[in-house]
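Protocol step 4 of 6.
Sequence for Glycerol uptake operon antiterminator regulatory protein (Bacillus salacetis) entered exactly as in the expression construct, tag removed. Do not edit the line below.
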Amino acid sequence: MPELSGILPAVKSMKEFDKLLESDHKYIILLETRLSQLPSMASYARKANKKLIVHVDLVQGLKTDEYGMEFLIRVIKVDGIISTRGNAIAIAKKNNLIAIQRLFLLDSHALEHNLKIINNVQPDYIEVLPGLIPKIIQEVNRATNIPVIAGGLIRNEEDIEAAYEGGAIAVTTSNHSLVWE
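Step 5 output, structure tokens:
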């Protein structure tokens, strides 16, 4: 499994994607896109020696069942996925993709429920949102022994440092000032 670290840029538009193809970032996380755009985006990413991680829950026109995942794996040939769905994570792991389980921390019940799912599917990484709660990042890491990525509401260098101090191994952000410094 590749080791993710540092800032992982998350893009929402073709303009941002094009800019990242020219950057030093090794990984590109696709957030909001359409199914019809994925083949060309994956091709451009490969030509630029970038690894493509797709947030499968946010791809318009894609169903995250076994057939949708098969399309991503065999046709698009993504390097990894992000999802809140355990079935998508399990399929990604079975096919040796980077599997990142996205975890929304709304309350303690959501935390407990998601920890059960995570312990069943054993993703490679857990993305905790919002990523501004260092104590919770530590708790998730201790409860699962899975590397944690902080995401959501990361607005400045202090937020990144707080996430790292909490034990995050990487930070996802779409904040331009943090991605293209």
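Step 6, annotate. The helical segments are 14-21, 38-47, 66-76, 86-94, 108-121, 134-144, 157-165, 176-179.
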